[in-house]
Amino acid sequence: MLNVDTLIHARWIAPVEPDNVVHEHHSMAIRDGRIVEILPTASASERYRANETVNLDHHVLIPGFINAHTHAAMSLFRGLADDLPLMDWLNHHIWPAEGKWVGAEFVQDGTALAVAEMLKGGTTCFNDMYFFPDDTARVAAEAGIRASVGLIIIDFPSAWAQTADEYLHKGLKLHDDLRNNDLVTTAFAPHAPYTVADGPLEKIRTLSDELDIPVHMHVHETEHEVEEAMARHSKRPLERLANLDLLTPRLMAVHMTQLLVGEIDSLAQANVNVVHCPESNLKLASGYCPVHELLRKGVNVALGTDGAASNNDLDMLGEMRTAALLAKAVARDATALPAHTALRMATLNGAKALGLDARTGSLAPNKYADMAAVDLSGLGTQPVYDPVSQIVYAAGRNLVTDVWVAGKQLVKNRQLTTLDEAAILKKAQTWRDRIRQ
Amino acid sequence: MLNVDTLIHARWIAPVEPDNVVHEHHSMAIRDGRIVEILPTASASERYRANETVNLDHHVLIPGFINAHTHAAMSLFRGLADDLPLMDWLNHHIWPAEGKWVGAEFVQDGTALAVAEMLKGGTTCFNDMYFFPDDTARVAAEAGIRASVGLIIIDFPSAWAQTADEYLHKGLKLHDDLRNNDLVTTAFAPHAPYTVADGPLEKIRTLSDELDIPVHMHVHETEHEVEEAMARHSKRPLERLANLDLLTPRLMAVHMTQLLVGEIDSLAQANVNVVHCPESNLKLASGYCPVHELLRKGVNVALGTDGAASNNDLDMLGEMRTAALLAKAVARDATALPAHTALRMATLNGAKALGLDARTGSLAPNKYADMAAVDLSGLGTQPVYDPVSQIVYAAGRNLVTDVWVAGKQLVKNRQLTTLDEAAILKKAQTWRDRIRQ
In terms of pTM, does the model score above 0.95? Predict the structure, then answer.
């Protein structure tokens, strides 16, 4: 008998690695926050003695979702301005509201709301881009969720920093503060090609190599962005980034709705990661990311919700469904993005993009136990022929009952264990009353 | 003081009629199953004395969803075959499974599962097309949900009928049986242009006029359908239907992903109703229905989930979100389908298509009290700036807490009042075990 901390007996386990596998009546042993083994339930109790045993009789256990692109604190602007195109939405609604309201307290309260929403929906890791990333990091660490906080850089002053240099300086200080943090890591987050000049981008290129930090950036979000770049630089943004030597395996290029065939080839050759945000792209009528073509050429495609101001939720399960459905239509091929591939995009591919796939993203021995249990016993998910199909095409995030990050249970029977939900909701309503006036 | 049966005090009421209105702190008085008045809560208790009072402090009360196209009993095939194109899915999976399993018991158990799922998700009326419609009608009536059952006609034998004439004969008998039923009505349901010959279609045309029955039909679902019709008849299916004089205000043309500009004009002129099923169309890669163009030209566009074998849920709230998001992308215009219009499509437009808009579809005096309460107090729907935006873009169907049809409460604090959920689930699992073998 081997001693472990936790033994989980599940009706199904969908580990994502290896591909297309679903284990039925299997168990997982966890010690020191990491997965020790996945084995048939019949032999698990003979082999392991656990401090704690969890029974998931009607559930499928999956890797926690990795939300590869969000602006967590913007949850306080959820539904503030809808049914508008990107530049109108940004120029006349979001940027003015941010100018007026964003500060450390806003980011703390908005991030807490977002983290609570994400955890309850099965998300165990998020990749953020926003002002006051030190507060984002603090909220994430306190909640116990895994996070990659963006060291934001933008050519406009904000309450967080005045110049590109100050953004960079503050970002590097935060990176240094988080150096030994296993749960909260950092990524450079230059906002977009149209909002960051060559100078800061060159510095980011050098520093990301030296310090081994990913680069998280909105790229080719809209046709307008590409047209404007052609007018200003006589170059498509991707070409400009290529000239700046930024097309590397460290780049997470978010949105990518405007891609020429040759550009897809370049991304594949350079091992650039693409982060697909289908609901935000649909809602802002930004265009379609050619997910099927990217996958076919071997590009790593992860999934993100974008911020709740443009989505309007942080529901990775729903995002995964939208991605799976939309890719088929865009490719004009119902086989284009099968359920298992969609689950992989929402989990392991996000971990890969963040350089965290040795720690998380699939249920494999030695990885951290970052995972979610989804209860399939209800009306909307019965009968069950294939549990993964059920999660991708029929389940809602409300069917997530339990969530663990690094073996610590952060959601237990649908209740948050590290966050005060009532206090978070009260603050959200207070912000609404202030913003609405 | 006026006596009423029920007085509901709601934080918000979104009546759909008039357009774009949300009442805050309003109440609804209900007598004999019908809405008497909607008025400010402050004056409601002075004016009405009620047998029962319901407080919806954190909720928005909306008309119940009208699922304008489904095959309810197919819920037993949910997830049986995914990630396949329409004709492969039909020919090699669904039709063989139907041939083997469909009978009266299958339809009863599958419809009960579907009705339970729909009610809990806020759907108060569904328009069905399937074999054994008499059983569909019986299950709906027992549950108390409003339904339009399809008098199916198809040129292929099934366990329900052998010839087009027998289908028609059995359908007319069912129509006659339901003549005085206010809750369960009928529609002719010729399966599709490619599965029903001119003869039966001509009879349906005559009978639908004589008996005032809508005609519910799959039309222009895929490019393949149109190409095959061109090869067989040298006509696009819509042209053939026009020649058969079937383009009338009674027609509910479902899917309509293949439309020429002139065809949209013809539909508008003839006041044909279109039923949009975005998730099914995406999943089967059937194409995009040009919703924005149809609405712009004044066509009545309703929403349906299609059957759970191709969706894979009967979630009208989710379908409404997908419709709102997708229309923007297809129209390349973020203003193309605003939240309030999406809610109207999911409710009133369905009632209009079914010829039931004098009874249901909006919260207006004299209409039946068919409605759903959605709780917006949770993490994923806070803060609230616009309750309708919140429902369309952020809420999940699990936030539906209470549902009424004709003033009778069928879901109370998330529990079904007329159906035995445990028994329904048990039967679904038994069917799964039989079908899976």
Answer: yes
